[in-house]
Structures are given as C-alpha cells and as structure tokens.
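ok new one. same drill as before - structure tokens go in, u give me an amino acid for every spot. 427 of them this time. try not to just spam alanines like last time pls lmao
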C-alpha cells in the first residue's frame, strides 16, 4: 500500500517535511511516527496508518507536500486498503484538493443533509467507487446515490465533485479581498540597483504573512494608548521574588499583567468575544484562554494559556515559562495554539514603547505591552517622582467595540495594574 499524507487538522492542507524518521527496508508498526511535518505554525508527527516493510520513500527533508501526497510504500501491511485498481479514474478524480473541504448546502439534491456525519451509515457502492471516493477523501455517507436502493455510482461521485468545485470557485472570488479588492504582487529584480541576497520564505513565515494580511485588511482596527504605573507590582515582585524562586518559578511582571487583564475582561465581556460573521452573531466567551505571542528564531508563535482566571500567580508563572520554552524549541502542538479568547503581545523584554498590534482573528482585541522604564510623574501631592511606567496599547475591532467602551476598558485595566492586590501574590 501507499501511505499518503492525511489531513492533520483544520486548515492544515500542506506542510514542509522537517525530518524523515524511517528508511527503506525498515519494518514499522501501525501508529509509528514516520516523519515530522511543519504544518501551519507547529511541527507535527505523522504516524503510519498500517504496519509493514518499507519498500520506497517518496519524500525527503525540505519537500513541501499537500494532502494526498504519497509518503512511502509498504508491503505485507496489515489493515491496509486494497491495492489500487488499474482502471482509469473518472474525471472526478482530478478535483482540486481544496474542494474536499468545501461545505455543502442542505438543500442541494446531490448531497445528504449537512447533519449527516462522516462516519454515518455508508451507502452501497462498488469497490471501484469506494476506492475513488477514498482517494479523493470524500465520505460516501455525504453522497446521495441514484442507483438501485440508493447505491452510489461513479456518476454520483463525479456530480458531487463538480458541485464542490463550483462552490470552491465561488468562495475563491470572495476570498480575493474585501469588496472584491485585489492587489498586485511584487515581482521586481532589485539586483539592478545594487548587491542583494535572497532567502526563501519558510513555511511558518508564509503562514504568518497570510494571517497578518487577512487580519489587517478584514478587521477595522482602532488602537487605544495608555500608561500604567508599575510601582505597586514592582514592590510585590521584590517582596515575593525569593519565595517564588524556591517554588520553582521566576516572578516576572507578565503574570501580574495577565491576572489584571483577566479581571478587566470579566468586567468587559465584549472584549473576550468573537464575531460569527456568517450568522451575524457576537459570541461572548465565558472562558479566559490568553494567547501569548512568543518571539522565536523561526517567527512569531502564539501558544495559549488556558483558564487563566482559575490559576494562581504561581501557576501562571510556571506555565508561561513552559510554553515559551516549547515555542522556542518548536515543540508546540497545533492544539496548543487554538482556542484563544484574547491575545497579549509583550515586547517589554526587547524594548520599545507603544506600538499597534494586529488583532488575532477571530478575536476582537489584543493587548500590546512595551518596556517599563523610569519616567517623571506628578503625584497627587504635586511632587515630581521617578516612577516605573508601562506603555500599553489596546487594538480592537471597531465592528464590535466602540471608542467609549475601549476607553473604559483601558481605564479599568490601568487601575487593575496600579492597584494589584497583594493577596493575589501571596503563596
């Protein structure tokens, strides 16, 4: 049998081979990892669906592959699909890979109801039709058969794929840009102006590029600026630093800021939400999964700190160190970067002041943190003192959040930072 690259998750239709962990002649078992693939923003292990002896390997490190690509060939495999039939595939077999993930309409005569599950009852079909459907990645339970007793024939499969192609084509026109906008691509020989070097974009950089353009173009960004006095938090850090180190945690300002952020989100639930654009519904989230933007050599990664509202300052401190290390070592799983409700981008360790972070869609707001530095502040008594001041910014989706709401959120966040309760820091 040929082992093909499966769909490993939503949106993960292609990837770059990072390492091949087997060689020709090896005998492997079902579930054994055969290669590692850089897909989306994570490096994922790809297991073999069956065991057997490897007779050929069709990929090498550095190859970019898509769903359905042959990875290797096995002989003597158990639980494998039957050998491919020699008969020529119908026109349906040439359908683009993207078509397989298309959503079908409930009222389309060629499809079963959308509520039907992929693992539901499988209609009758010939071995050849089953083989073609399997190679195309189409669950037969979603195809309405026109044969005797609802039997699926090859014409049904071809008609199904044709419908998918049409739907993908319509979706593609919309995806060109808001209101049908299109943009020219840069294709210029810069070497005519002077010496240059070139380097190919990594798979991660391509993903980041596509996401940033989509987020920036499709969301109406507005950014609110503020400064917060970190005197109270710095005093608490000095007081509890040694105790946290004994407990195995480094007490940085970030855990304090996350706790203050969660308290503020609980008072302003629209900031912890997502806009369901198709249904035109605002989804208010009652969980607080905070995305933490991590700067790595490979590019920006955003692992998620889950249930931040239920964790102590010590737990948050430990978990932040763990996920930051995993991000820099590229050991994050795709699941660890999904499900965030709000994102924090902290440039404090690098430097800089206010900046305008891009919202991490489908979230509706993001917090940007700069470097805390000593600045002159006029106190309530009219004195001028040097205080540690944190520059912060809130970028928000103006479709969901108005300026007044953003201003109130920012004021409450600053207050939560400046009046951070000492009891929350105690072990």
């Amino acid at each position: 049998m040929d082992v093909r690259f499966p769909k490993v998750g939503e949106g993960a239709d292609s990837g770059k081979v990072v390492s091949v962990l087997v060689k020709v002649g090896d005998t492997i078992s079902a579930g054994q990892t055969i290669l590692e693939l850089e897909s989306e923003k994570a490096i994922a292990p790809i297991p073999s669906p069956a065991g057997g002896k490897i007779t050929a390997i069709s990929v090498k490190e550095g190859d970019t592959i898509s769903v359905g690509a042959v990875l290797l060939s096995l002989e003597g495999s158990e639980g494998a699909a039957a050998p491919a039939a020699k008969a020529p595939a119908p026109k349906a077999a040439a359908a683009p890979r993207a078509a397989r993930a298309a959503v079908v309409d409930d009222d389309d005569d060629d499809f079963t109801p959308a509520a039907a599950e992929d693992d539901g009852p499988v209609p009758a079909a010939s071995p050849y039709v089953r083989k073609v459907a399997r190679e195309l990645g189409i669950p037969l339970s979603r195809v309405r058969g026109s044969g005797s007793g609802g039997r699926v024939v090859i014409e049904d499969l071809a008609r199904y794929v044709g419908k998918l192609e049409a739907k993908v084509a319509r979706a593609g026109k919309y995806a060109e840009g808001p209101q049908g906008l299109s943009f020219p691509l840069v294709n210029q020989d810069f070497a005519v102006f002077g010496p240059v070097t070139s380097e190919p974009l990594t798979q991660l950089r391509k993903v980041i590029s596509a996401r940033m353009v989509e987020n920036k173009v499709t969301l109406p960004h507005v950014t609110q600026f503020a400064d917060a006095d970190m005197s109270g938090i710095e005093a608490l850090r000095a007081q509890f630093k040694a105790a946290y180190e004994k407990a195995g945690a480094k007490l940085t300002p970030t855990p304090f800021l996350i706790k203050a952020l969660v308290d503020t989100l609980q008072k302003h639930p629209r900031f912890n939400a997502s806009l369901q654009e198709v249904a035109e519904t605002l989804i208010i989230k009652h969980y607080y999964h905070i995305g933490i933007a991590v700067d790595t050599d490979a590019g920006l990664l955003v692992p998620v700190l889950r249930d931040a509202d239920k964790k102590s300052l010590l737990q948050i401190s430990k978990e932040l160190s763990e996920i930051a290390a995993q991000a820099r070592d590229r050991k994050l799983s795709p699941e660890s970067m999904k499900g965030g409700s709000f994102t924090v981008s902290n440039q404090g360790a690098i430097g800089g002041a206010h900046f305008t972070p891009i919202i991490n869609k489908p979230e509706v707001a993001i917090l940007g943190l700069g470097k805390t530095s000593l600045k002159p502040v006029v106190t309530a008594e009219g004195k001028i003192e040097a205080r540690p001041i944190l520059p912060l910014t809130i970028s928000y989706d103006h479709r969901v959040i108005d300026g007044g709401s953003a201003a109130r959120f920012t004021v409450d966040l600053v207050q939560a930072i400046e009046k951070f309760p000492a009891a929350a820091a105690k072990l």
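Residues 79-118, 172-179 have pLDDT under 50 and may be disordered. and btw The helical segments are 127-136, 154-174, 203-218, 231-246, 253-267, 313-328, 403-418.
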